Predict the 3D structure of the following.
Amino acid sequence: MKTIANMTLEQKIGQMLLIGYPGGAAGLRTLERVVSRRPMGNIILFSRNAKAPGPLRDELAYVRSMIAGRAGVEPLVSIDQEGGIVTRLGAGFTPLPGAMALAAAVSGGAATTADIEAMATVNGSELKAVGIDWNLAPVADVNVNGLNPVIGVRSFGEDPEAVAELTAAYARGLSKAGVASCAKHFPGHGDTSVDSHLDLPRVEADADRLERVELAPFRRLIAEGVSAIMSAHVLFPAVEPEPIPATLSRKALTGLLRQRLGFRGLIVTDCLEMRAVGGRYDDLAARAILAGADVLCVSHTAELQEEAFDSLLAAVRSGRIPESRVDESAARVLALKAVLASQASARDPLGRPESLALATRLADASISLVSGALPDLGGGCLYLDHRPALESRVEDGHEATPSMAASIGAAMADRAFGAIELPVDPDARAINAAVAAAAASSRPVVMGSYSLARHPAQAALAEALAAACDEAGVPLCFVATREPYDAAALSAIGGKERAVLCAYEYTELSTRAVARVLSGSAVPAGTCPVSCRFL
């Protein structure tokens, strides 16, 4: 493997870039063009690059060879394969419960941290088998804000020590598979009400709160040797009094993370195209490196990737960034590549029955009854399904996910079952039709909510349903199919205690797990890892 001593300046700078490329043959041509002009060193994949395992393995072998020919060393190939709502690779790979679902399973006692580690090892083994060696997970943010639009159920919960324990287990599991982990988003994105893909969030917590809450998981992960930490595009006045986010703050990345917390691994930025920083601050690439970042993520746009490279090259040639600073970061990247290259790829571990069985068991164990008692559904039910929408730009599409209604219907095939599918923002006509159907129903009514706080029409429907069902003497209960915080509005709607199940994510695993609970073939064994009456 190349060393710093026998690399050109351009090749060393290339090691500090993490770039994405479009999907399909045209996307590969775009990547070829970028790499032919500048020796980019590392790759990030998204859903647009997803393929069945065999074709993906072949494509990545080509990408690795192509980049090695130009940069002198193979790339780190990364992905956000968190599980749950952020799952880039689907068909052919084991489905993965998300962080909050896993935490609910452990909190309820039906799963252990060893199970979390084992699930992460499955994840890492499958990634390694197709040529991906860096998973940008786990999410180490402590979600203490029920209105958080971008973290939420991607977090392991609101208890700092529990989040620290579970993120450490997840990182260990990835490491066992020979895959590098990446804790994100430092110093913590869990107390924001703004999506940093769209705007610049701010965390007002004082230094003491940051120590007790936000930093606890990162401190634990650093002690256990986490490979990388991703910076947050978030303002932290308690750390950096200037109006610049952690990604661009030397006080945050060098003073706090490197010097005070003693982190020696890779610091990678969140994507520099996100609107929290992109178009808001000039000279992002050089500023992030001067702050202490080692790797700059530019996920989508070839022109911006080339601009970031050229900006670093110009800053070194002008003396603004010492070449020794480039050597320092490039050496960290090469050191991680050497470690990962020494760990052989697993062959054909994908789709193993025991992996699916583990994922299914954990999904089943996650379903939590947070309020009331479920009505007897032995005679069937009417299910009102709000099909999911993308709530943030980090998520993956839901088009291929079986609907909750379909999963429940399959589980209740021998009973009287009806379903109404609604958009996340039902209009007055849809609400009136659903309420009329519920009032005429002789069976219990179950309503699935999805991000209630961001879709207030669902709350209006729930209120109307409560009045109609109570008048007709029909039991009414709810399934929070994403945020458990929905229970704050639903558990006593209409002045009466209502049963509320929390599923934490609208995925194939969770829809089937909920269906088993509602059909009576499973019990809700999970315990919600956040305050469900938060709002």
